[in-house]
Amino acid sequence: MIRLDAVIDSFEADFLAQYRDRLTSAHYRALAAMKRCRTEASPMMQVQCTGCAQQKRVPHSCGHRHCPHCQHHESQQWMERQLKKQVPAEYFLFTFTFTVPAEFRPLAFAHQRLLYDGLMRCAWETVQTFSHNDKQLQGTPGTIAVLHTHTRKLDYHPHVHLVMPAATVNSEKKQWRTKRRRAKGGYLFNHKALAKVFRAKLLSAIKTAGLALPDRYPKDWVVD
């Protein structure tokens, strides 16, 4: 198996020559961390077999959130922790995407912290609004939200995935409420209505932050 540090050693110079003007300090830190991950350049730790007492020095992993060496195991552990928290209700997956309008990508890349925060917050506010207004739910939901900044092809495409049970807590009535799936299947909320509310919330957040909106952008956005 070809290790990531070998790939970086082979292509780092060409990569920096082509993209240096587009990289941030965070990119350089990630590159440096993954280059030394589990190599002789990283800190070492002493491990010992509990059966035969054989000892060995092993290099530390970098622990960087973008490192595939480190995060596969971490991701599996995270998944197992979340599965233990399941509630007695059906679950739905939302994908909130505001970069389908390509005009917003330069704005998002130039103001990543602000736009990512707005993307997460507006997605949550949208499902919260729909949950309170839903006849069967009428309460506050809970979700797991994950920010993705790129597609599987590594194209820049910020979007948020939300995993949400069809259940809420009505704090005023102290009730646990769930929503029943229709006989022929169904969805949690209407996706076109979700997209309209999400669009309005995010545009408002961008304006409130003092950022200029693109001159032109599509009227219809997408929530799956």
By helix and strand content, what is the structural category?
alpha+beta
Overall tally of structural domains:
2
Q: Helical segment tally?
A: 6
Tally of DSSP β-strands: 8
Helix-strand string: HHEEHEHHEEEEHE
Taking Cα atoms only, what radius of gyration do you get, to the nearest Å?
A: 22 Å
Helix % is: 40-55%
- Average of per-residue pLDDT values: 87
Q: Name the poorly predicted regions.
A: none
Strand count, sense and closure of the main sheet?
A: 4 strands, antiparallel
Tertiary shape: flat
SS strand fraction: 15-25%
Give the strand line-up of the largest sheet: 4-5-3-8
Amino-to-carboxy terminus distance: 37 Å
Structure characteristics:
single chain, 224 residues, alpha+beta, two-stranded antiparallel sheet, flat
Overview of the molecule:
With 224 residues, the chain is an alpha+beta fold. The chain folds into 2 domains: 4-76, no CATH class; 88-223. Helices cover 40% and strands 20% of the residues. The strands form 3 sheets. It has a 4-stranded antiparallel β-sheet with strand order 4-5-3-8. It has a two-stranded antiparallel ribbon with strand order 1-2. Strands 6-7 form a two-stranded antiparallel sheet. A hairpin with a 4-residue loop joins β6 and β7 (175-178). It is flat. The chain starts with a helix and ends with a strand.
How would you concisely characterize the structure shown here?
This protein has 224 residues and is of the alpha+beta class. Helix content is 40%, strand content 20%. The chain has 2 domains: 73 residues, no CATH class; 136 residues.
